[in-house]
Amino acid sequence: MNLANRITFVRIFLVPIIVLLLINVDLGPLVFADFSITWNQIVATVIFIIAASTDGLDGYIARKRKIVTNLGKLLDPLADKLLVAAVLISLVQMDRIDAWIVIVIISREFAVTGLRQIALLEGVVLAASNWGKWKTAVQITMIIALLLNNFPFAFLDIRFDLIASWVAALITVYSGIDYFVKNKDIIQIS
């Protein structure tokens, strides 16, 4: 078990902690004038940011130290999908995001993962596209805005969380279509 894989396992381990904080724990509210947020949301957000930031770290360490493993290739994208899906589903339960947006995002992840599996069976590794990287960045930004009840934009009466949700949905769909169009030959081979 190398360092990169340990970091990935930590990210997976943090997923249920974040979910518990969001839907099963009440640490009380923090109130500023008309703005309110729970302490458990703040703690969950900090843990989410730490977990999301380890995504690039484990890959960097694996490549830098030349310790890329099949286990890491399997677990790294799985950890990313678990983290995003679990938090998004929790946000639906908290009534912070519409379920249809979460369904679109998770469906795209399943579809692209399926395409990657087909490619692996053909001996091809599909790298993340630039649109996929943008998709991830926008989704993480959206999740943070939703976890923080649109802080600090709530004070400016700007619905950044809603805008970020729509942008995330659009970029997610586009990046999925882009992925399939650029790799249509993989589907035809299989």
TrEMBL record:
Subcellular location field: Membrane
Keyword Transmembrane helix: yes
Transmembrane region(s): 12-32, 38-57, 100-125, 137-156, 162-181
Alphabetical list of InterPro entries matching this protein: CDP-alcohol_PTase-I (IPR050324), CDP-OH_P_trans (IPR000462), CDP-OH_PTrfase_TM_dom (IPR043130), CDP_ALCOHOL_P_TRANSF_CS (IPR048254), Phosphatidylglycerol_P_synth (IPR004570)
EC numbers, comma separated: 2.7.8.5
Keyword Kinase carried by entry: no
Pfam families linked to this entry: CDP-OH_P_transf
Domain of life per record: Bacteria
Keywords: Lipid biosynthesis, Lipid metabolism, Lipoprotein, Membrane, Phospholipid biosynthesis, Phospholipid metabolism, Transferase, Transmembrane, Transmembrane helix
Membrane topology, from the record: Multi-pass membrane protein
Reactions listed under catalytic activity: a CDP-1,2-diacyl-sn-glycerol + sn-glycerol 3-phosphate = a 1,2-diacyl-sn-glycero-3-phospho-(1'-sn-glycero-3'-phosphate) + CMP + H(+)
Molecular function GO labels: CDP-diacylglycerol-glycerol-3-phosphate 3-phosphatidyltransferase activity
Protein family according to the UniProt entry: Belongs to the CDP-alcohol phosphatidyltransferase class-I family.
Function: This protein catalyzes the committed step to the synthesis of the acidic phospholipids.
Record protein name field: CDP-diacylglycerol--glycerol-3-phosphate 3-phosphatidyltransferase
